[in-house]
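Subject: for your reference before the review

Hello V.,

The reviewers asked for a structural picture of the protein, and I figured it would be easier to keep everything in one thread rather than splitting it across files. Below is the amino acid sequence we used in the manuscript, unchanged from the supplementary table.
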Amino acid sequence: MSASRFASVRRNVLASSTGQILASALSVGTTIVTARWLGASGRGTLSLLITGAMVLALLVCVGIPQAITTFTARGRLTFRRAGKLSALVAAGTLLVGIATAIVMVRRGDVAPEVAVFLPLGALAGSLSLSQVMLANGVGRVDLGVLNTAITAGTLLGAYTIGWLSGLSGTLAVVAACASWVAGQFVGDAVGWWKVYRASRDTRRVAAEPVAARELWRYAASAYPSVIVGHLNARLDILLLGVLAGTAAVGLYSTAVVAASLVFVVPSAIGAALSRPFGDHADEDAKRAIRVAAIASWGVSGLVGLVLWGAVMLLAEPLLGAEFASLGVLVGYMLPGMVLH
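And here is what came back from the structure prediction:
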């Protein structure tokens, strides 16, 4: 491995890990506040909105964000063109979100005051997905994490204000949904501005611009992996909402937040390796990826054990009696999370 590539990987791993730890800490804070403020049922409604919005964003993206990462990293896609593609996908997501919300309200599946946030959340999720993937493509993984951290910080502040204000019932749920959408847009705005400033080299005309047919072919080939890799972690929440109600979703989604903390270091390492090794197949690249995988499993296992013990001890005192069984759920989830 060349010294420059090693330095780039190390810098990105450190920056991304630090940012993801901060974002995860803020996410845990929002989980605690929403659990205390909304209870299991209200938190379940919020989780269903978030999940539905992100599912729409993933379904409509048709693999374009993954193509943006790949061809930007190869120097074949300019920032301007990547931005236009992202805007196209976002517009499509908004339209699909509006249509979905109308259908759900007419069927009586969701209250109108909650459904109005579905298309807005899907739009914000689409912009966030494209921003994170573009940041990876220009070699600035930390800017994708910055989006998440700013969003989480904004949400923690907004949720805390709502909790302390004494809002309750339906009004509290609506306020939480509105806060989530607003927080997403704040993170997107800062994230896109930062990646714009960091992508000066990709604003010029690409040396070998990717043809539209090649780009869409790549996006189509990446789309199935996006569906399998992301929706399998979200459809369970939607199904649980249908089968068991919002209270069960609230408990389950809180367990998912806790168990997913084991992903912090592995995801940071994987994202950091995408640019320096994404288009290489030499032995140095393969060796680095093998070492990274082994190290990720080891770190995840240790984090998982500590995490499980903490949840067993602190879940009920921090979140309330409705979340007393949280430790058991997290214990079931952790082995699969670590191996994944």
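For the response letter, the relevant points are probably these. The mean pLDDT is 82. Residues 3-339 form one domain.

Happy to draft the paragraph if you're swamped.

O.
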